[in-house]
């Protein structure tokens, strides 16, 4: 295997990080410096000098415009996440975050989890809007993490995808892993993590279909990757092959994907609760435009 691909698997690091290590002349095979595109050799002595660990990421309490609290009690906060907001801080992200916005508004959240994502039990992409839950109490954090892991949470998304999926109701069962060439993307990969998406077309238009999606698993970019693999990418999702002309015509500047509904057993009493998010203005306007066109 190539050095970058092999070491990424060996060390559990991204290929970008491994490439940086190789570019710094910190990978040696039998005492000789090798580059990221060189090949690993069976039986050779491999030496790697890892970079210093990154500084811990801290949460900055900065107000987030458009972040709406749908429900709050002693155990959970359910929010409506606007577009352009990450759930928690991460390396390279300098924009607003859900946890930072909640902190700025004076909301207390659980201290479980890594410092930068305390209370976070699931995530939405920066470009995806909609409903999500954050744990306030430590018991709620444990209960919700377990619920997401055991797939007892009902996660419903609405999306407009290009073309017309066939069949109009089905299940996409295809493993997902990081894209072999682009670190910022994911792809259907034979040795990826099991990923299951259930979908049903709600409305069909000339150039696109309005679909309801139930996620059985929750991989990063799962809906976007699965529909792209079917050659029906989410409208506006240029990262995964969407038509920029259609996106421009509909006034969509990001993927048409919205976390519509979230249902789960409340960690306090076990009662089933469901929370719903309305479409933001940009998605609602593009859907109406499609309906007008027929």
How would you describe this protein?
The protein has seven helices and 14 strands. It has helices at residues 3-11, 15-23, 98-104, 138-149, 222-229, 244-250, 281-293, and strands spanning 27-29, 32-33, 46-48, 68-72, 76-81, 129-135, 154-162, 169-173, 176-178, 186-188, 196-204, 208-215, 257-265, 272-276. Strands 4, 5, 6, 7, 8, 11, 12, 13 and 14 form a nine-stranded mixed beta sheet that branches. A hairpin with a 6-residue loop joins strand 13 and strand 14 (272-276). The longest helix is centred in the C-terminal third of the chain and has 13 residues, at 281-293. The radius of gyration is 21 Å and the shape is globular. The relative contact order is 0.12. The model has no long low-confidence stretch (mean pLDDT 93).
Oligomer: single chain
Largest sheet: 9 strands, mixed
Distance between the termini: 51 Å
Strand/helix succession: HHEEEEEHEHEEEEEEHHEEH
Shape: globular
- What's the Cα radius of gyration? 21 Å
Structural class, by secondary structure, is alpha+beta
**SS field, number of helical segments:** 7
Low-confidence stretches at least 5 residues in length (pLDDT < 50)? none
| Number of DSSP E strands | 14
Helix content: 10-25%
Strand content: 25-35%
On the 0 to 100 scale, the average pLDDT is 93
Descriptive keywords:
294 residues, 9-stranded mixed beta sheet, 7 helices, 26% strand, 3-stranded antiparallel beta sheet, alpha+beta
Secondary-structure blueprint:
Layout (H helix, E strand, L loop, with lengths): L2 H9 L3 H9 L3 E3 L2 E2 L12 E3 L19 E5 L3 E6 L16 H7 L24 E7 L2 H12 L4 E9 L6 E5 L2 E3 L7 E3 L7 E9 L3 E8 L6 H8 L14 H7 L6 E9 L6 E5 L4 H13 L1
Parallel strand pairs: 6-13
Antiparallel strand pairs: 1-2, 1-3, 4-5, 5-6, 7-12, 7-13, 8-11, 9-10, 11-12, 13-14
Helix pairs in contact: 1-2
